[in-house]
Fold each of these.
Amino acid sequence: MSIFVQAKSRVSRFLMAFFRKRRSRIGIYGPPNAGKTTLANRIARDWTGEMVGPVSEIPHETRRALRKQDITITGNNGSTITIDIVDTPGVTTKIDYKDFLEYGIGKDEAVIRAREATEGVAEAMHWLREDIDGVIYMLDCTEDPFLQVNIMMIGIIESRKLPVLIAANKIDLPDASPQRIRSAFPQHPVIAISCTEGKNIEELYEQMVYHFG
Amino acid sequence: MQQGVQIDLIAEERLSEMTSYEKIHMILDNVREGRIVILEKGLSPEEQSRLIEMTMREILPDGFNGIEIETYPSRDDAPGFLQRLLGRASRESRLTVIGPANQLRMIRKDKDMISAWVSSR
C-alpha cells in the first residue's frame, strides 16, 4: 500500500471518529446461501442474546432486509463500536420460481417466494446505495468466488467508498479454500470463519471494531 | 420461419451518448425480447447496481426470469500523481455480454476471453 493511501486511510479514520454518526449501519451482503443470516444471528446472539431471522438450506430464505439495532461490539483492546446489522437477501441477477420446486415447495408458494425474493434483492440494492455505512461481504469458501455477481457487488461497494470486510465462511467444510477468496479480492481484508461452529469469529469482531469504528 | 438469436453490439460512442436510465432500459427491453446485448464498454458500478434492481422488478413467473451478465475483469488505469495522492485511481469498465438467464449460459471466463453458450427460445 502506498504511503499516500496509508496516510489518507489514517486521516479518513480520524475524521470519521471525530464526526461519526451515532450508529453505523453494517450490511451483510453476498450471494444466496453464503451464510449471511447465520452470521447476523451469531453477531446478534453473541452481543445481545437475540436472533435476527430464520436460516434454511433453501436459497432466498431471507427475502426482506432484516435489521437488528444497537449492537455494541467490544474489541480486545477495549475499543467498542455500536452498529445496526442489516441482513440482506442473497444478491443475484436471476430468480426462477421453478428452482424452489426441487425443495418440495408447491407452485403457488414457490411463485410467492420468488416474488418476495425479487423484491428483497431490489430493496437490498437500494439500501446499499442509500443507507449502508459499511459492508461484510459474505462468501462460501467452498464455491467459486469469481462469479460475476461477486465481482459486480465488490465494484459497487468500492465505488461507494464503503469500508468492506470479506468473510470467507464455511471453513469447517472439507472443500473450503479461503485462499481462493484472498486471491480473488487481494485489495480487501479476508477473514476465514465458520459461522455455524464459531471458528475465528473473534477475529471478525476485532476487524469489525477496527474497520467500522 | 427462421430460428435464431439476435445479437446487438453497441458501440462505445453510442453508449456515451445515452443516460444511465436509457442504457438500463435499452438493455432490459432487448433482453426481455430474447436478444443478446454486447456493450463495447461496460456499465459503471452505479449503473450495474440499478440494472440488478430493475431486473428484479421485471421478473415474472413463467416469463422473464432475469439476466446473465459477464464482463472481463476491469483494468485499473495507471493513476497520475494527483490521483494517487487523492486515492482516485479509476477503473476501466470493459466489454460486457448480457442476455436472458434462460438462454445465455457462461461456459468459461478468463481475463481476456469469455466463452458463452446461447440457445434460442
Amino acid sequence: MKLQEADAKSLLVAQGLPVPVWEVANTAPEARAAAERFLADGADKVVIKAQVLIGGRGKAGGVKLAASGAEAEAVAGQILGMDIKGMTVHKVLVGPAADIVKEFYLAAVLDRAERGILLMGSAEGGVEIERVAETNPEAIVRLHAHPLLGLQDFAARELAFAMGLGAHLKAAVAIAKGLVTTMKAYDADLVEINPLAIVREAGPDGTTVERLVCLDAKITLDDSALARHAGLEDLRDPDEEAPEDKEAREAGLTFIKLDGTIGCMVNGAGLAMATMDLVKRAGGQPANFLDIGGGARADKVAAAMQLILADPKVNAILVNIFGGITRGDEVAQGLIEARAQQTRDVPMVVRIVGTNATEAAALLEEARFQTAGSLDEAAAKAVEASRAAGTVGTVA
Amino acid sequence: MSILVGRDTRLVVQGITGREGGFHARASLEYGTNVVAGVTPGKGGQRALDGAVPVFDTVAEAVRETGANTSLIFVPAAGAPDAVMEAAESGIATIFCITEGIPALDMIAAVEVVRARGARLIGPNCPGATSPGRAKVGIIPGSIHLEGRVGVVSRSGTLTYEAVQAMTDAGVGQSTCVGIGGDPIIGTTFLDVLQLFAADDETDAIVLIGEIGGAAEETAAAWAGEHLVDVPKVAFIAGRTAPEGKRMGHAGAIISGGAGTAASKVDALEAAGFRVAGSPTELPGLLRDAGYRG
C-alpha cells in the first residue's frame, strides 16, 4: 500500500525525523487559509504540492509556489482536479517554501537478492534516482543494515560521509537510522526521501542556520503486515482505489483488470500469469489477472465470479485450478453456487486438476459445466467461446 | 540420491494439528515420507494422523525424541518466522515453510538465524519439494509425479504442478521438484537449487520455471551458462502478457522500469543455453530436443 506524501511525513515525524511543517487542503479556500498562516509565521512563499500516488508530480505541473494567500488559492485551484498520469488530484499539501542549499537522495528499501534492508544515498537528489542509477551509478552509495541489529552507527556514518554530508553528520546519521526505524515500525517495503535537503532557515536573533530536513517522503507498506498495525489501514486513500480493487482486496483476492474479453479465475499467481499468457497465445485477450489464492473455498470463488462478471467486456470465462492446498471439489462447489446467483449468462470453461480433482469432476459433470483436460485445451476452448460470443479482443 | 528430501528424510510437521497441517502431513505420510513427529505447543503427548505420529510441544523435543532432521511448517503467518527460527535453533537441517502472507521484514531475521545455524530454509510461501518415489515434503500433489532424472525448480506453486504434470504425462520423470516460493524474502534461491542439482548424481537435466520480477532467474541463468554447459536445460517464464507496474499477486512479480520483464529473462536463459517453452506442455519435448534421453 502506497501512502500519500502527507501521511508518509506524519509517520516520519512520529519516528522523530526532521520534516518541515505542512497542512493538507482539500479545497482552494482551505489552501489559501493554510498559506496565510504560514506567510504570517514568516514564510516568504509557500509551496503547494498535489497529493497523488505517482512520481513526477513536479514535471506534470503538480508542484507550484505562491507568494500570497490569493495566489495560493489560485494555484491550488489549478492543481486540484488536475489529472496526473491518470490520477486525479483530490488534495494538496501546503507548506512554507524551503530555501534549499543542496539536495540529496536517501532511501531504505527491501533488498530481495541480499535478503536485507538496503540503504541507498546520493548527493544527486531531487531528480529521479532511476535516472541517476542509469547515467551515473557511482553517484549512488549502497550499504545494508544488519539483519538483526538494524542500521549501526558506524554504517550510518559511512553512508553520510560517502554522500558528502560530513558537515551534517549527526543529523544525517539520525535520519539514516530513522529511515530503518520507520521501516521496521510500520513494516514498510520502502521509505524514500527525495529530496533530503540542507535548507537555510531563520535562526535566533536574525541569523540564518542550515539544517538537514526531509522535504519529501514516499512510503510503501507491506500489505502482509497491515493487520498488525492499528490505524495504518485508515491511511489507505479511498480516492486512489478503483471499486473493483477494493472489492477484491476485501474478499482476499488478487485482481488486476486488463482490457480483454476472457475472464480468468486461477489459483496461484504464477499459474494465473501463465494462463493469461496462454489465452493470448491461443489468440484471445485476457480480461483480468485473478488469483484466488491457496486454499480458497466456495465464498471466495463466488466473490471472484462476481468481480469477473462486473466487467461488461467479459464474454467468456476460463477457470483454471490446479489443486494443491486448494481442493478441487470446494472450488467446483463454489462455481455451482456462483452460477446459480449469476446475473448474466457467460460461457465458462472449467479445468480442475490436482487435489480432489475426481470429486470435482463428478460435481462439474452433474452440473453440466464445459470442462477441459489440459491448460492449452482450456485456453483454446475459452478463446473459441469468446469468439462465438461475438467480439474477441484484437490481438496486438 | 535426489536433493533436499529423500529416503533419509525424518520429517517433523510444525502445525500438524491444524486443518492444512493435518491434511498435508497425512498426504506426505501416505506418499511414503518418513513423518516422525508433529509439533503443536500445548498439544504435546497427543498423537496425530490416527495415532501414527507423536505430537510434541517443542521442536527441540521432537528432534531429541525422534531424530527429526527436516521440518515442514504450516504455522499461521504471525507465528511462522518464529517457527522457522525454532526449527533452526533445534538443529533441523532443512526447513520448508509453506505459510503465505508473512511480513517481509520478519523473514530477514529468520533467514539470518537459519544461515547462522548452517541450516537451509526453503520458502516461505512455497509448495515444498518432492523426490518422486522417495519422499514428499509439502503440498505438491503426489499424483503428478513420475520417478526420473530431471530436476525441477520453480518460484510458483500451482504452475510447478502444471509443468510437472506435463512432464509426467509425456513420460519424463523427475529426480526432485522444488518450489522455492514467491515471496520477496526467501531462504533458497534458483541459483542455490541449481547448485544442488549440479552436485546430484541422479539429476541429468534441469527444468526452471520462473516468472516476471526481480533478477533471480537471470542470476541463475548466468551461473548455469558457465557450470551446466552439457546439461540439458529448459525453462518457462510466466508473465509475458503482464502489464508494467502492476503486482501480479506474488510480492515478487512486478515489472518496474523495464527490469524483470519476461523478455529479459527469456533472453538471459537462452543466452545461457536454456530452451524456453511457450507453454508448460512443451517442456518435455524441449528436453528431448536438448538431448535428454531419460
Amino acid sequence: MKTVVIGVIGADVHAVGNKIIDHVLSSNGYNVVNIGVLSTQEDFINAAIETDAKAILVSSLYGHGEMDCRFFKEKCEEAGLENVKLYVGGNIVVGKQDFNEVEDRFKKMGFDRVYPPGMKIEKALEDLREDIGI
Amino acid sequence: MKPYLLVDFGSTYTKLTAVDLENEYIIGTSKAPTTVETNVLDGYDVAFKRLMHDHPEIKEISGISACSSAAGGLKMAAIGLVEELTVEAAKRACLGAGAIVKIVFSHHMTKREAIKLKEANIDIVLLAGGTDGGNKECIIHNAKKLVDIEIDVPVIIAGNKDANDEIEEIFEESNIEYYIVENVMPKLKKLNVKEAKHIIRKIFIEKIIEAKGIKKAEVKIGEIIMPTPEAVLLASELLSKGYEDQEGYGELMIVDIGGATTDVHTIGEGFPKRTEVILKGLQEPFAKRTVEGDLGMRYSANALLSLVSNYEFKKYFEADDNCDHDIRKSLDRRATNVDFIPLTKDEEEFDKAIAKICCDVSISRHVGHVEVVSTPLGNMYYQTGKDLSDIKYVIGTGGVLINHQDAKKILKQVNKKSDKLLELRPNNPSILIDRSYILASMGLLSQKYPRIALKLMKQYLL
C-alpha cells in the first residue's frame, strides 16, 4: 500500500476539506498520513521521511498558500525527498487570478500538480494513480 | 513486626530503608558510601550494621528489594531517523526506563559516528527509525553499521517492523546480542515505548548489573530489579494515580537535583487546556522523565555559566544575601572537589543559587511551550510538549533539596514566570519535600505492596 502525506499548510485552520481528502484517499487504497491543520513545511517533510511517503498533498484555503509554499521543493530536495510527488490545491493565491498563470507559477516552484478552487478530490485521486500507482 | 528492606545502590551512597509491613510505617533508614570498586557488599554491610544498631527492634528481615544507579547508572545510545520523531521516541524509551542517554544519532550513521558509539562506553543501544510500513532503508543501513563495527553491547531494535526480517538476517551472522521489539513510533507521532522499556529493564537485570560488578550483591539481597530512576518514576506514578480506593494526588511533578544531573518527572497528560491551542509534535508519555546532564550541584557546576550569564546568575541570590560571591571561583571549587559540603552561611547561600538555576532551567526544558500564530480567524496557538499549568504538587528530592532548610524556596523556581510566559509551567503548586529520601524505595515497594507504598508516601512527603 502506498503512503501519502496530507495536511493544511501555514496559519490555516480549515479542517473540513482535509477530512474529505483523508476519507476519499483512504477508502481508495492509500495509506493516508494526515498531519492536520496549521502544519509547517517541516511537518510535511518529517512525516514523509519517516513514513516513506510517495506523495505530499498540500492544502491551503486562506489565500496565503503561495507564501507558505515557497522553497518547499528545495527543502524536499535537501531532505532527500526529490522523488516525492508534490500536489497543491485550494484557494492557493490572494484574490481572483487567472488560474493558468497560477498553475504555471506553482509548477515553477516545483509542484507536480496544481488544482484550482472547487476541484473535486477524485481528480487528484486519478492523478495519484497515474503518478505513483496504488 | 514484619520488616521489609529496600536497598538503593546509588552513585555515591548505598541507602537502606526498613519498612514494617504489619504496622505500615518506616522503621528507619541508613546509608554508607557505595563501594563498587572493591565489593559492593562492603558498603551495604556498613549501612546494614548502622540500621541494625539504630533499630535493635529489627529481629529478622522478611524480604528485600533493590535498585541501582551505581557505577555510572545505565548509559544508552538512542538512534533514529528524524530528530523530532523516531529519535525523540527512542530517547523517551531510554529515559522512561531510567537510563541516561549519552549518544544520540539521527538519519544514516556515518563511520565516524559508529566509531564514536563504540568508544563511548555505553551499556545498551536502542535502534529505531521509520513508522511501521514507512522508511526501512535507514534503519537497515544503521543495523549494518553496528555489525560492521562489531558493537560489543546489546542492541535493541525497535523500528519499522517491515525491516525486522532483514535486520534479523544481518545480526544473525554476527555475535552481537540483539532483541527485536515493537516499534517505538508505529504511526506518525504515536509513541509506543512499553515493550522497549520492558526489554531495557530485562537486559539491565540480567547483564548490566553483572558487568558493573553489582551482581555480587545478589547472593545476599536477591535480584536487583530496576535502575533507581525507574523506581522513582514508578513511585510518582503510584502517588499520582492512587491505588484501589485510596485516592492519588493527581497530576504531579518530581524534581531531583543531584551532583551531576537534574531529573524532572511529571505524571499527567498535559493536554491543551484551551480550544484555540493545537497540539504539535510527538505524543508525550503520561509519565515523562527528562534528565539534564549539564545541570548539577557539583560535577557539572562549571557548565552553569554557559547557560546563564554572570549577571543572570546574580539574580538567583536572595535579596538579603550581602556576600560578594566570586561566581566562577565558587563553581570551580565545587566541580573540582565534588565532595564539597557547605560549611558557612555564604557557601550555603551559593549552593542555594546553584540549585535554583538547576531547577529553573530544567523546568524550562521539561515543560511544553506555546507559540502564537496569527490566522484570519484570530490568534491560535501551537503547543509542543505538556501543558503543566494545572499541576497540583511538586515534590523535591535529591541531596540538596532534602538537606537544605530553604528547599521549598528553591522549588518555587518551577512556578510560572513573567519573563517565560510561553512556557507552560505550574501555577503555584503545593510543594512537598522527600525529607526521608524514600521515593526510590517506595517505587521498589510498590512492585509488591502498592497500597503500603502509597500510604507511606502520603505520610512522609512533607
Amino acid sequence: MTNAPVSNLVTATGLEPALEPAGSSRAEDRKARKAAKAKKKSLEKGPKRKITWDIVWAQRALLAMAVPLLLYQVLFKYVPVYGWAIAFQNYKPGRGGIFNQQWVGFDNFEKLFTGVNGERFRQVIINTLGQSVLTLIVGTFGAIILALLLNEVKNLGFKRVLQNITYMPHFLSWVIVASLAAVALSLPSSGGFINQFLLAVGLVDEPVMFLTEPNYFWGIVAGTSLWKELGWNTILYLAAITAIDPALYEAAEVDGAGRYRKMWNITLPGIMPTIVVLLIINSGWILSTNFELPYFLGNGLISERAETIDVFVLRYGYQLGNYSLAVVAGIFKTIVAIILVGSANQAAKRMNQETLV
Amino acid sequence: MSTTPVGAPIAQPDVLPPSKPVATMVGKPLRRRKPPREKVRRKKRTTEQIIFTTANTTFLLVLAAVTLYPLLNTLAISLNDGMDAVRGGIGIWPRVFSLKNYEVVLNMDTIYKAFFMSVLKTVVVVATNLFFTSMLAYALSRSEFIFRRPITLIFVLTMYFDAGLIPNYLLIRDLGMLNSFHAYWVPVIISAFNLIVLRTYMKSIPEEVIESAKIDGAGHFRVWWQIVMPLCKPALAVIGLFVAVGSWNAWLDTLLYNSGEQWLSTLQYELQKLLASSMNAGQNSANMANNAASVSAGGQLTTPIALRSAITMVAAVPILCVYPFLQKHFVSGLMIGSVKG
C-alpha cells in the first residue's frame, strides 16, 4: 500500500494524441482505422497454438521469470479481498483473526447507509465528488490553456525553463504541499502570504479565514491540486499539439487566419481527442480523490465539506477502530470505481480511442 | 522536450534502430515541423503579435513566480532566525539570516535517522522494483511466451482494483510484516503501470539482437540481463525516477505499517506528524501561541514554523535535484505507457 500516485497514473494512462489530420471524412477514417486495428490484432495473436507440456517445458525459463511474480501479485493485490469478510462481521481486533469474529450479515451496510452514519456518509460521498469534479474541471482547463500558451513561446530555452519550473511541484510530496498550503492560507500574522497579498492589493479589508470557512474548502483543494499538477498535466497536451499537421497552420495562414483563429480552429480541435479521452479516463477515478489535502487541512470546523471517503476510512475506520464500517466504505468505493472505470473504458472504446483494459 | 521532437521515441539505443519504431504509436514523425511556419511569421510581425508575445511572456512569468513563491518562502523562513520568523512577513529573502534551524534539524535524532531511513527505503525500493519489474516485463515482451496474455491481464487489472486500506493492512499484519523494514519494499516490488511501459519498450528492441544472442547460446536470463537491460537504460531511468519519487514521498505506509517502531520512521512521516500537530494546535489565530513556543533540541532554540520549513526543505531538495536531468524523457515515458497490451 503506497501513497498511491493515482493522479499521475491517471494522467499518464491510455490515450493516443490526435492522430488523424482533421478534415478528411471522419466516418471513412474510422472504418479504415477499425480495419487496420483488426488486422493488427490478428497478426499479433498469430495462429492459435495448443498448449502442450513440451511447449511449457521449452519455456521453463520464461515461466520461472513470470510465475513467481504472478503469485506475488495475486497474493498482494487479490488475496487481501479476504479482508472484505470483515464487512459482514462485528469486527473487534481483540478477538483475534477474522475467523473468531461474530457474523452479522448486512448489518454494517445498513449502519453505514442509514441513520446518523448514513447522513454523514452521504455528505462524505458528496464531498468526494465535489472535490474531485472541481479539481478535474479546473485542472483540465488550466492545463489546456497553459499548453496553448506554452506552444506560442518561440524561445526554446525560455520554454524549457518554464516547463521545468512548472513541473517542479509535481515532485513534491502531498505532505509538503499540504504544509505549504497551510502556511499560504493562514492569517498574515502566521505568514499567510495569500492574505498579505490580498490585503496589499486591497481586494479584501480584513484577512480571509480560508481554513475555517467550510464553503471555501473544495476550492482550496482544487486550487492546491492545480498548483501542484498544472505543469505536469500539460505534457500530454503539448505532445498532442506537436502531432498536429503543420500544413494545417500554413493553409490557415494563407487564408488569413490570425493567431487566435489558429488556436481556436486548429490547435484546439487537434487536441480534442486527447482532451476527451483524458476526461473520460479521469472520470473513472472520480472517487479516488486526493487524500492528503482533506486529511491535513480539514479540521473540525469544516469537516462537513472536507471529509472524503478515504479520510473517513482512515480516520473513522482505522484510527478509531471501526474496521467493519471502514471496510464497507472501502468496498463501496472499489465497486463504484470498477463500474466507473468500466464505463469510461466503454465510452473511450465507442469513441474509437485506445482503451485501458 | 525542446531539443528532441516531442513524441519521438525515448532516446533509442544508439547502435540499433528498432524494427518497430515507438513513434508509430504516438503519431506521425514530427520532424518536418517548424521552418516554413517561422518564415511566414517573420514577414508579417504586427503590433498585435508583439502585444500578444509580451502579454503571454508576462503571464507565464507570473505563473512561474506563483509556482516558485511558496517554496522560496519556505526556504527563506528556514534560513531565518526562528524567533524572528514568528513575527511573519518574510518574503523570499531571510530577514535575519541564520543556519540554526538546519543545525537543530541535524541534531534532532529522529529527523536525522528518519532521513537515512528514507534514503535506504528509496534505494531498496528502486532496486528491487526495477529488477523484478524488468524481469517480468522481459518475459511478457517475448511473443513466443504462451501465457503472456493472461498474465498481462491479471497485472493490468490490478491497476484498477484495490481491496482497500484495511484489507491491505490486515494482509501485511497476517504476513507478520508489521513494524519491519519489509513492509516498505515487499508490497511494492511490481507496479503494473511501469510493467506495461517497460514491456512496450522492450518490444521495440529488434528481434535479431535477441535471436543472435540466443544462437550464441544465451538463455533467457542472460538475454534479459546482458542484452535487453542495457538497451532499456532510458526507460529504466524514467521509471526509476517515478518509483523513487513515489517511495520518497510516501508516508501512509509508515503510518499504517511501521508507526510502532521509531527507527523505521521516515522523513515524510516525521514531517506529517509536525504538520498534523500544528494543524491540531488550532487554526490561524490560535496558531500564534503555538508558533511562539520554542522548540529545543541539542541545546538550541528555534520555533515550530522555522523547524517545519527546514524539514520541508530537507524533504524536498533531494528529489528536486534529480528531476530536471530526466525531463526530456518524461514525455516518452508517459506516451509509451499509454499503449495498452
